[in-house]
Write a structure and sequence with these properties.
heterodimer; A: alpha+beta; eleven-stranded mixed beta sheet; seven-stranded antiparallel beta sheet; extended; disordered C terminus; B: 187 residues; mainly alpha
Amino acid sequence: METQIKNILDDLYKIDPELKNYEEELKKMIIKLLKSKPDTKFDEKFIQKLKEEILKKADELKNETVKEGSSVFELIFTSRLSYALVGAVAMLILVIVASPIIKKQNSFVFDNKSGEITLEQGIKNLGDKAFGSLYSTESATSLVEGRGVGGGGGQVTPMIESLDSGSVKMGVLPPYDVVNYNFKYIGGEFNIDEEKMGVYKRTKSESLAKSFGDYLSNLNFDLVDIGKFNDLRLDNLALSENKDFGYSVFINSKEETISINQNWDRWPRPQDKCRDEACFEQFRLKEKDLPREEDLISIADNFLSKYNIDKAYYDSPIIQKSWERNYGVDEGYIPEMIQIVYPEKINGKIVYDYSSNVTGLYVSVDVRSKKAAGAYTITPHLFESSQYEIENNEEELIKLAEQGGLFRQYKSPNPTKNVDIELGSPEIGLIKYYNYQNNISEELYVPALIFPIISISDKEVYFYQQNIIVPLAKDIIENIVTPEPFPEPMPLIREKTIESSNIKK
Amino acid sequence: MERDEKISIQKCQKGDLEKFGILYDKYIKKIYDFIYFKTHHKETAEDLTSQTFFKALDKINSFRVEDGFFSAWLFQIARNTVIDHYRTQKYNLDIDEIWDLSDDTDIERDIDTKEKLKDVEIYLKKLNSEQREIIIMRVWQGMSYKEIAEATGKTEASLKMMYSRTINKLRQDMPLAMFISMLLLFK
């Protein structure tokens, strides 16, 4: 009792230090109060019996609830409740993205009263190599295909700009330069002490689709008795705001991703009414229309904030400027949209895509209206983690980087151009990688060294990568990066190229 | 409100009413004691506790998670259930709980409780219902300020202020003689 009294008194003094002047009186009074506390005769048998009765009643109420489903058609078509329904569902969706950090795995709560949906987020640690092999034949194929699209180098590079436009004729391929990219590491020494690092796999609980399905199956459609279908899942949901500058919200319940786009029907674009070039020219965006960088970031931030989209798992935003490299202000091109990316961070490591760019949450800003036009890849931060062996030999890693890293470069024996690319000191990041096995795509995040490209000797050559990525997981290095020589360009294209070059000469 | 509690409530509202058992387990002792301290009678407390939880189960969909604490909602149901009990028995239309009744009523009370309370009852009766509740929750039920604030729907700051003032009032009301006798009693 002494401790209890002391606690009560200490609490009192914190509220009103003056009371300490009456400590003896207070102490006696509290003793008296405590001694006078009646025995409440809390009866465990009664408590247990009452619980049984309550749970029985709960079961009865549950059955009644299912029978009391409302007619969706009545709701939608016979009253203004349609607005309420749409509003409620929209609210549900927007709240999904605001899900805070949750510690446990695999639970999902859909509050159909408040319209709140809670998705779990967090990282669950599994044992070593829990995802099996990180390499599959299908993944390797996908990577090789990716190189073609990515144009990592060693490939034939279009040089259309060097041609007299009049020489490009239908059916005749323009000449191409065969470029050899020579990477040179100029950064400092680095050490990797670990022998294993975490590989992450994005996980989905599937509960979102099921919970939506369960909810809808309780509703009583006039045309079809939805309740008769079993184990329903809502795969997709699309909603639109019916107002100027309204948005469309797309929910992919299966993948647990959400995207927000402009509702094109209600997004005013003055140039749409143009019927001639002069009119289009009048509305063409000018350099002065470009918002300042801080304004672009501010628009994106405000949009995320307004819709309660959590930025906790993302790094500082970066404005994508590939349009400047591809076209440039000098050529009079100002894009209608500018993308801002909030790089995703998993356990503090930035995520990169195959193209060596940071990836994560995207917000696009409509340059004309200076409004956010949407947000993409809004998804819960829910992962499993497993340790995999990594390559930590500095020399070996530099060698791989100088070969082009993930996109190992083919060196032509007969290049028409050589380009030197210098690489700076690397940082450890994660490469987003899809492992296809048995028709299932696993979204993996594999530790990798990110070597920044410091300089390119030939400014005329467009080299799209900003970094050279060297995956650290031995499984990927051994099976994907190292062994496979990159195929030469298709003979047909080469012949045509040579032929075209000859014709020009 | 704790996350687990919120999830249980939301699941109940979604139709998974078995989760009400989690809420029951968490609050049964607090609610029963709360009611007992307002009735001083075991059977009455059990009856009103049952009514409280059945009402809560029945009305769980009317509770809005974003509007406040579940404990405040539940304690309010318990409070109203006790008030209804006394008012329907027509003891007095102003009666909220047993503390408001005079000693000569024929209302049932546990004898041991009546005996135990004889020294402090007169002073606790001088407090209004709200003040008494706070003292009982803090001193008898051992609830933290945070819990009491949630259960009474007050801010923690205003609750602490009210608590310290009530304690001071009790200190002033209780005669010195009583302290001296108590001092002798407990030494």
